[in-house]
Amino acid sequence: MAQAGPLTRPTLAPYACRADASRGRRHPEPPAPTRDDFQRDRDRIVHCSAFRRLVYKTQVFVNHEGDLYRTRMTHSLEVAQLGRSIARSLGLNEDLVETVALAHDLGHTPFGHAGQDALDQCMQPHGGFEHNLQSLRVVDVLEQRYPEWRGLNLCFETREGILKRCPLPQAQAFEQSEPGGVGHRFVAGYQAGLEAQLTNLADEIAYNAHDVDDGVRSGLITLQQLREVPLVERFVAEALAAHPGLAQGPARRLLAETIRRMLSAQVYDVIDTTRAALQRSQPHTADEARQLRGLVGFGDEMRSASAELKRFLFAHLYRHPQVMETTAQARRIVADLFAAYMAKPAEMPDEFAQTDDTPRAVADYIAGMTDRFASREHQRLTGLRLFA
Ligand code: MG
């Protein structure tokens, strides 16, 4: 019988991030008896309140528009699934990839990018708002679950993965408070660990695929229209050749088979391309891999095919008049809420109302809202009912 203890992963490649070689937590903690530090980080994320709220946050479609569409929660689970399966093939640390995937969108505002843009605009005089920075702020500061410190006290490698992007002035500020920490790579010019890079790419693969799915299901775009995108056409044609009966319907099956094939091809492409790059450069450690550019990625052909799909989605789905209309209402809700709380901070719960930095507290409070809570608060404070 195996003894209970942290699961060892003998298949980890030398360039993988290892939990037992982690740079650690900001507040040192004794090891857990049955889980390693990355597994423990994942569990902390799953149990935090920002994670639960992802269920009711918009990905592309505002949450009330239908139960079929992805939310930030289902998106994050799909990123974790894709990321894990690529990580396993490459000898990277699956647990770390899963952890970063589940946390990567914690800082998103309600109403997707419309909400983020509106909040950023409101925050311009006060240092701006950016969802990657906010995701880190959620796990470092805003979650309050431990007696001795704020935040979840996650490992460096998890926090590094969450902080996907960081403007230089902010990176320099991180360096002041945490020298050599998560801001350092943006100042010194190196990459995050391979697991973090992989999670980024899994994010992109996931949303391209599920936005095709949600877009077609919503009726805003059609599969026929999508066939002008070579990447989609290739897999529609393959699916029809393998299963000629699919041409007669139901349409949902052809769509699902097309997306399944497209996802697999992208996953295999990343695995093959990244494996070849790793074999060429042979990094001996995770830190050596951080110093090398271009290890994790698509091959040239898939990269441009995927970019073309993204351009199509941007033009025909994200800019669709119906999406733009909800976008305009979402921006209004966020801007009105910001103005209302700035004028009367006491309308917020005490922990947000009683701070020395009201604008940041207002941004934190709004960013943490679900779509439906933001709509209800907006109605309470303005008497207007949007998204009715
Ligand atoms: Mg994402």
Would you kindly provide a written description of the structure presented here, covering whatever features stand out?
This protein has 388 residues and is mostly helical. Helix content is 61%, strand content 0%. It is built from 19 helices and no strands. It has helices at residues 37-46, 49-53, 72-90, 94-103, 112-122, 131-142, 156-162, 168-177, 184-188, 194-218, 223-226, 230-242, 251-281, 286-290, 300-318, 321-343, 350-353, 358-367, 371-382. Helix 16 (321-343) packs antiparallel against helix 18. The longest helix is centred in the last third of the chain and has 31 residues, at 251-281. The mean pLDDT is 94. The structure holds magnesium ion. Magnesium ion binds at residues 75, 104-105, 203. Magnesium ion (MG) binds next to loops.
Q: Helical proportion?
A: 55-70%
Cα gyration radius (Å): 22 Å
Order of helices and strands: HHHHHHHHHHHHHHHHHHH
Low-pLDDT runs: none
Cα shape: globular
Cofactors, ions, other ligands: magnesium ion
How many alpha or pi helices?
Answer: 19
Topology:
Elements: H1 37-46, H2 49-53, H3 72-90, H4 94-103, H5 112-122, H6 131-142, H7 156-162, H8 168-177, H9 184-188, H10 194-218, H11 223-226, H12 230-242, H13 251-281, H14 286-290, H15 300-318, H16 321-343, H17 350-353, H18 358-367, H19 371-382
The structure holds magnesium ion.
Core attributes:
globular, binds magnesium ion, mainly alpha, 19 helices, single chain, 388 residues, 0% strand
